[in-house]
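Lab notebook, page 48
Experiment: co-folding of the full assembly
Goal: obtain a model of how the components sit together before planning crosslinking
Operator: M.T.
Materials (sequences as entered):
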Amino acid sequence: MLSLKDAGQPNIYPVNPNADEIEGLPAYASLTDIPGPVDHVISAIPAAYVLDMLEDASTKGVRSIHLFTAGFAETGLADRLQLQHQLKARADELGIRLIGPNCMGLYVPDGKVSFSQQLPTDSGPVAFFSQSGTNASDATYNGALRGLRFSKVVSFGNAIDVSAAELVNYAEQDTNTEIIGAYIEGMHDARDFYRSLRSAARSKPIAILKGGLLPSGGRATQSHTASLAGSGELWAAAARQTNAVLVHNMQEMVDVLVGWRFRAVPSGPRIGLVVGGGGISVQGADDVEREGLQLPALSDHTLRRLAEVTPVAGTGIRNPVDTMSLWDGERIRPTVDAVAEDPSIDAIIVQVGMNWGVGFFGNEELDTRQNMIAEIAEARERHGIAIAMVVPISIDHRHGESNARLARMISDAGLPLYYNIRDAARAMRRLLTWETRRVERAQP
Amino acid sequence: MLSLKDAGQPNIYPVNPNADEIEGLPAYASLTDIPGPVDHVISAIPAAYVLDMLEDASTKGVRSIHLFTAGFAETGLADRLQLQHQLKARADELGIRLIGPNCMGLYVPDGKVSFSQQLPTDSGPVAFFSQSGTNASDATYNGALRGLRFSKVVSFGNAIDVSAAELVNYAEQDTNTEIIGAYIEGMHDARDFYRSLRSAARSKPIAILKGGLLPSGGRATQSHTASLAGSGELWAAAARQTNAVLVHNMQEMVDVLVGWRFRAVPSGPRIGLVVGGGGISVQGADDVEREGLQLPALSDHTLRRLAEVTPVAGTGIRNPVDTMSLWDGERIRPTVDAVAEDPSIDAIIVQVGMNWGVGFFGNEELDTRQNMIAEIAEARERHGIAIAMVVPISIDHRHGESNARLARMISDAGLPLYYNIRDAARAMRRLLTWETRRVERAQP
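Observation: model returned without errors.
Model output:
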């Protein structure tokens, strides 16, 4: 309820037979006591009472219910499975759509509905659907920190009614959605989902995380959302055929969504790596190649240009470009220009913080960073080249605020933020595969 | 110099011909003007003046010099390479040992010497040697956040005199060192290093990160520390033969050092995974298996024990154990006991924070966490089982302090801290391989 208040929802009616007031709002003994119409019910009552609540909702003319309530098929108990069947059958008879059970429900900023506090109240072009509430929170919370804003996020748990296929179909049609992500554990009709994927992926980029691909993960999906997980090979084939991007975990999911949203899709596999620090440059180069991309040697012309603006001691310019020019208002532009204009470079990764403590700089240095970020954003416009920004994170809180501000500056400038070079390279490689297939398909 | 002050060093003599005072200390025009003996010189002067400084140091009876100074062979310039040769030849004649050039030098808390501010002033059993200054900082800074303390850390750059082999030999003999890590870019005598590795690894665990294994990383080592990188196959074979642990990046390096230090070495591949959150449990299970470990189904006896203390709704106990008991002072002990006592479990991974924002709890909940951590630490003692703790991190600063305090509680309790389940599983798998080989070798 605090989440709904945070989202600015003006019409909240708490229902609880044992309270007169909840969080400052008048409480009602039952749904039928609420004055005026009710659009949507969020149920957090025990499973045993849900059938009764359904009747009240129907009386009240409700058409959609989100069942936060858990304790159905996912328990593995026969009577709970039976209860789930009864619930679905009765909801069908009454013409009520169910989200869940066993889920967090909806985050729709434009509708002033949210399942969590501290989420942005402004909306954006990303739709995310998840059978897991924690993963829905992960995408929205961690995505928001990197500038993602959402059209609709739906945590839909056991999915006894509203299904993954239906949600993907919806996102394909939704004019407020440009990018789609989904976390799936299992489904009753895989063919339906495949069809929805194939259709949606034709017009919008879509990333899928499939939980439970391995044996014990599969065991976990049963007790989590009562889902039977499918085989890894089938899902990989489905992703290839539809050109959906299959990721391995939520970190990679957000990495790919951020890449689409903030234009990290490279035009080819050849990366220019710009960092400040020798050890980082060596490891970063290894990481980029380990992820299947390339770091070509720069041309002699480029090297001459870089040499003009790069101090000779403690730096290297042969790609990776290890340079102190990153921290220099005058030198950052010619450095990025030289790399971007090299004919052998398709995309750039820039690491703008150290592996050891992001916040080795204080607030007073944020102006320098702001300038650096603005220069890099402008360079992207001039050269039309994909650029990924890297700011490592740590558990240290001493510089947490300047760090978070740096992250915000980067996403405010419309640049994609990653937490290390390996993650940026992995996302770019996935995006390149996606883009290559997309272009192939678009050809007559 | 501020680093030395931070470290509590009482005898600092700034040398600068153009200053009377530096940071509140009297400055001297040259080394020879310093009253009394000088044990160690830190040179940050331009490369062109280093030969003159060497003569002054010799006059003063100095036996060791750390050359922060860069601008030698790593520039790729013939005259700079020549200068490096001259420097080494003259130092040999004068009987002066050189650390570097092009490096951060020493962090030796017991000697009150440090290359960075904000590092702990207390020492510990880990030695770390690095050709890269940023990687030396990475290990010490990020290691310190997870409870690591150091005997000696040496950033040794171009390594024209003091070499990796010599440092590893030293660490093997050093009674204050129990665990060794090293970041290597290249070396003049690989056989020497192999011998040092083989000998040291017999008595102390040792982890190696080799930079520049791939082509462009190799190009980067040349301009970073003028090192020729070796082939990946050779290094992998050397690691197998010596039972050194080869890691891929600094994150994995710290993960492995933390594992040795805080007893995350599993007795076998079978993991019990305990988390609070369904999506995390599914992904975590996939991650554990993807890293080459197993999640066996728990016995019926264990399941009955877990069922007694686990709420039926929204949880799962079949391994992964997805339970709200983590946050419950009364239930955490029987939960961990049941998993630890299952005969099919060799080690446990516990995720004690959510993927979305570590700090979803406020400071007022830290007592609950303290209790949870104490219970887990005690369970480890009772059962003699390896346990890895997972607290995810994020760039969000809003709960940074409680987050950092949680991390400190975990390392203060002597437990190993990881930032996600995949990293914990990867470290445990590497540690298991190491332990298996160690036991094999110890047999007659």
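Interpretation: The CA atoms of residues 389 and 417 of chain A lie 5 Å apart.
Next step: discuss with group before ordering constructs.
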